[in-house]
Every structure is written in C-alpha cells, then in structure tokens.
Request: fold
Amino acid sequence: PVRWLSKRSSSHERASSACRGTAMSRHSHENQSPNPLRSPNGVPVVKRAAPAPPPEAYAASSRNYSLGCTLIPLVNRLQDIFAQVGGTAADLQIELPQIAVVGSQSSGKSSVLESLVGRDFLPRGPDICTRRPLVLQLVNVPAAQGSPTEWGEFLHLPGQKFYEFSSICDEIQAETDREVGNNKGISEKQIRLKIYSQNVLTMTLVDLPGITKVPVGDQPDNIEQMVKDMIHSYIKCPTCIILAVSPANSDLANSDALHFARSVDPDGYRTIGVITKLDIMDKGTDAKKYLTGEVYPLRLGYIGVVNRSQDDINQSKTVRDALLKEEQFFSTNSMYNDISQICGTPRLSMVLHHILGQHIKASIPELRAHLSRQAEKLAKELMALGEAQPDTKAGQGAMLLQILTQFSEGIQASLDGRSTDLPDSELSGGARIHHIFQDIFVPTLDMVDPTDQLTDEAVRTVVQNSSGVKGSLLIPEAPFELLVRQQIARLKEPCLQCSRFVHEELISLCRACVPPTAGRFPTLEKRLLNATDAFLADGAIPSQKMISDQIACELAYINTQHPQFLAGTSALKTVLRHHQDRMGFVPEHLPNPRYASDEDNYDYVQAAKHVEEIAHGQDGSSEDMPPKPPTGWMSAAKEALGMTGDSSKRKAVSLPEPPQTLRVTGPKSERERVEVEITRSLVTSYFNIVKHNLQDFTPKSIMNFLVNRVQSGLQQFLIRTLYREELFDEIMKEREDMAQRRQRCKMGLKVVKEALKVLDQVPSEVVARVPSMNGGGGASAKVRAVVEPGIETSIGSPLPVRR
Reply:
C-alpha cells in the first residue's frame, strides 16, 4: 500500500513540476509527516522498492504532460477571448474543448471539483446548489517567494483577485442570486472563474446543475427538462469530454450521468466515469466491478475517489484533510490494491489533464479551419453591410448614386445573361422572358384551331344570311369575312396576356436585383421599388395598346390578295377534289382535274356549277332518282294540311306561319357541303396569316416598350426621381438593427482573428497532421491514434511514472 502511495505522490509531483518547471508536489508535506501510515490493524506499513519503468516510457509521459501544459492554456485564452463578446461566440458556433461535469443532485460533483482544486470554494446545501453553469479554469502557476500562490478571478469582475476561497464561494452565490434570485431558480448564463495555484494541473471544467426530479422554491414544473436541455447543450458537442459522476452506493445501471453520456456518446469515446462515495458502501461490498468496467464499460474507463462526507463538512475538515483520508483509505483497503492505478483524486487530476491535452491536439486542425471559414464569412457579411451611414450630404448622395447604379446595372446584366450570380438549377432573368415568348406564347397560338368553334350549321346559317333574298350562285365574300373576324378576335387576349407575363417577370427580376446595400435603408428600398414599378407600368400601357391596335388593324381590313392566302379558285380546287372522291364520278363534259394536262386552265367555276346542278337534280344522271321528301318545318306543315297521300282527300291549302326563330335544319345538300368546306378552308388560311403576324409582332412590341425601355431608361428615371438633396435625410436613414449587426460582425471578426493568432502560437510539432474531428465519434474517438508512443489514453492503463 505504501508503495502505491509513494507512486501516486511521485506521479502527481512530476505532473505539477512539468507544468510549472519546478519539482514541487502539492502533497509533499503530507508525505513528510513524522507519523507513518498504518494498516487497519495498527501495524506500520513498510515501503517496498518498485522496479523503474523503461526510460522511453518516462520520456513519453513527460512529453504528454508538456503537451497539456502547452495546449490547455491556449484554449483557456480562446475561451477568455470569446467570453468577452457574449452571444457572438454562440453565433460563430465555436465549440472549444473542455470537460463537462455531469451527475445527479448530491452525487458528489462539487466535492470532486473541490478535491481537484484542493480548496473549499463551491456553495453547498441540501437542495440544488449549482444553479448556473460554472466554467472553472485551473491554471498552474509557479510558487513565488513572498507572494500568494493561490487566488481566484471572475470574468465579471475584471482585475479583482480573491485570495480567500470563502469569498469566492460567496461571490458565486451572490452572482447566481443576481441572475436567478435566491429561491432555487436556474439559468443558462455562465459564471466564469479562474483559479491560479501551484497545486493544480491546468485544465478547464464546466460544473453543470445536478439532475433533479422535483421542483422546489421558484423552480418551474419542467425543471427536470430544463436541466436536461442545459446539460445536453454542453455534452452534445464532439469537442466536449464528459466527466460522468456516479455514487458507488447506488446501482450504476441507473446512473443519470451515464445515461446522459450514452445519449450523445454511445461508444464511450469521450466519457470518463468517476465513482464517488466508495467509503460509505455496505460492508462486504466494493465498487471493483464498476471501476474495471464490468458493469458498464467505457473506452476511457473509470476513476474511484473518496470525498468528504457531510459529517466531515460539519466538523470543518478541509479538502486537504479529505485527500489524506482518501490516500489512507485506498492504501489500507486490500480490495483496491490491484486497481490502485485507477483510484484517487491525484490520479483523476493527471488523467483529465492528459486526456484534455490530447483532445485539444486532435481538435486544433478542425478548429483552425472552422475559424478561417468564419473569418471569411464575417468579412463577406461586413462587406455586404457596408460602411457606416454617411453624415454629410455629399457622402449620402455618393452612396445613393452608387446604389442606383448597382441596381440598374444588375438588371441589365440579368436581362443580357451577364450576371455573375446565374443559377444552374433554373432559368432566370432574360432567359425567363425568352421562354415566355418562344415556349409559351408561340406554341399556344399554334394550338388555336380557327374551325374548332365553327359548326357546319353555323357556317350554313351565315352563308344563307349573307345571301339575302336573292340567294347566291357561289359562296359570297361576306360570310367569310364575318367568320374570320370572329376568329381573329380570339387572339387578342393571349397577346395581351403575354405582355402581362413579361411585365410580372420584370417586376420580379427588379426585386431580385436590389443591391444588399439598399436593404440598410428601408425608406430608400421602398421608394426604389415603387419608382421601378411605376416605370414598368408606364411601359406596359403602350405595349398593350400597341398590341390592341395591331389586332384592330387586322380586323379592319381583310386582305384577300395576300400572297399566302388560299384564293377562291385554289380553295374550290381542293374542295372539288374531295367532292369528286365522295361522288365517285367526274362529269363527262368536264375533264378530270386529277388528269388534266393544265390544271391552271381547268374551268373550276363550270365544274362547281355542274356540282350544283347535280345537287338540284337538273342533270340527267339523277332522272331516275325519287324526289327527296320534304324536311324541317315544311314537312310537318304538309302533314298537318293533308297534302300527302291521295290527292282526293286533300284539304284546302293554307300556309303555316313561320316560327319566331328559324334555324338551319335537315341534312346538307351537296352545294351546302361544298360551301361549308370552302368557307372553312378560307377562314383557316387567313387566320394562319394573322396568327403568324401576331406571333412576330407581339414580342417586338413588348421588347420595345418594356424590356428595352428598362435597359435604356430606368437608371435615368431613378436618378430624376430619387436623387434629390431634400430627400437624402429621409431615404438614407439606416435601419436601427443594421448598426448593431455591423458592430457584431466587426467584433466577431476581431475575436476570430485574435483566436487564429492564438492558434498560430501552437508549436508546429504539436499540430502535426491528426485525424479529423469529423470522423466517427468526434475528436475524442481519435485520441488513441494521436497519443505519443508508449502512452495509452485509457485511464485503465497507468501512465508510466518515475518511482
């Protein structure tokens, strides 16, 4: 047992001396006591020599202690830098390596921290004591002759040193009460405390509120969930080492601390278990299975400690007295002899210091990369926010003119496809307007069928109405013009709709091109958009008027002499061919147009007349055909008058009155069939001419009055409208939050640059290439891979020490 005690004291002495450059042990006075340690039966314990470790192992151990002494102070400096800017550190998403102490209420968390420091400085009580996160930075300092060697400093009290640790306890309690009151409330706002001592190893720990179940005092009903959320916000970070404190006199499987740790670190790569209250277990029981990981294994293992009991506190026993008692407990209990390397507060202090140093080393490359990305991001944001608002009229005018120019040039570049921010996932700018013209407007007009609403009855009705009293031999011109005008009028709405589509696209494009600088000035941004909308509306009106006028011109004059129009003779030729195909013969006195040697000299008018004679039964080919029965209302009238059947039974002749509404009824005659087909052909031919004209003219009108006008005249219009000195004070008034954002960005960029300078001080041999923190389990999952040769990070394997 004494050999183990000697080993523990010597190892802690080397750790401290490596940090401060002198060979000094925090417990050296304890080992020099004239009273030797005794076993439980009162027999003095005799020291026995132990074999020395290999020289290379000791060298590796010294390098690792030196690593922690080099890197941990740098991280402490980073924490101080980011703590000065408050919420900016959270905005930057900086996650610095640290150790979070987690445990249920009264599990011994505070006692563990006080044992690591060696002094009483934390509030105590029967209820929840830690009500705000306490960031505790332990800093090893060399002893100075004639000056205090231990003191504390609070970040919220800069420059003030506390040499009495009872005053530190009072200030923690007072600062907690100032934030959350004195009736057990909790808060996420940190208290930051630095303790300088020659008796500590440099490290950073965060004491979190203990897990509680039942609210007391002013605590809300969801106090349990609030504490869990606070703990989770710390331990979820891959850079955080979890110190899970569990009492030995309760079932480890029910440990709240291990349950929390497992939720964020299921493989146990960054969790260290601490088993407290070993001295108050039931007789005949021990925590050996807990400490060796047989119950719940952890990659970093467990450490067993013995802290002060409530009776010791009531008897005013100091932490140093408790450390002596702890050493005596482990040295006199044979059940822990074979696992002595994982027992005791000094061992815990060395392990935490060592693992935190390795953890920081693994985190530095990713931390430096993250800070570099944040610096670039903040620089861009600061550039977008621009300089502070100008105070002079000249400065305001120059900034306004710059904003108007950027806005106008951005619109022109977007329309021409010269923008530097062209997306690769969708059409934008001028490409959208081109899509409206060529892929929406033109195909839609092509799909319009002028005859889809022209029924045969409608054409027959129009033809008969236009023939008047005399009737007509051939198709008159009036029904053609009436029908084609009706179809041309259908094209007006899609042409005007195309103009509206482009107008809306220009409005959206202009809003997307507002420079970020304009967002600083809400009045300017509003007036800028209003002026742009007015300018676009002024162009949309003549554009739509020009389109309407063009359609009115098409309706005003039907040019049947158009070279692309299907003339009457050509239409008759086509229809007659179809008719002769249906009739199945060609009149003998007319040559067959299919075999005519000169179709241009073919007498289609005479052929049409012949078709008409056939339809009226005046040709010899229809002599034997029975007369067609009367149809329509005349047939009904004849039956009513008895004009059918035997002539002897006929009644007096009386004309039936025509109905109020007369419609074309009955089957079409051959003449009517020809008339309908010719009319359809003529309407389709002329409609296609007008459609092609509008497909070409409408985009030209829109480009002239809308798109080109924006490119050439918008900037001058905005200058005339907005660039007026009497408006400068109103439109150049910056948003209230912009100054705050700019200040926050400046402060963030400043602290990031300071942090990068701190990281630049890390020796190059320390920051050799290490595995990325993005690997499985975070940086701590890679700790084994970055440890110096000959050293295991698992606290289950002892660090080589000089005996």
About this structure: The two ends are 14 Å apart (CA to CA).
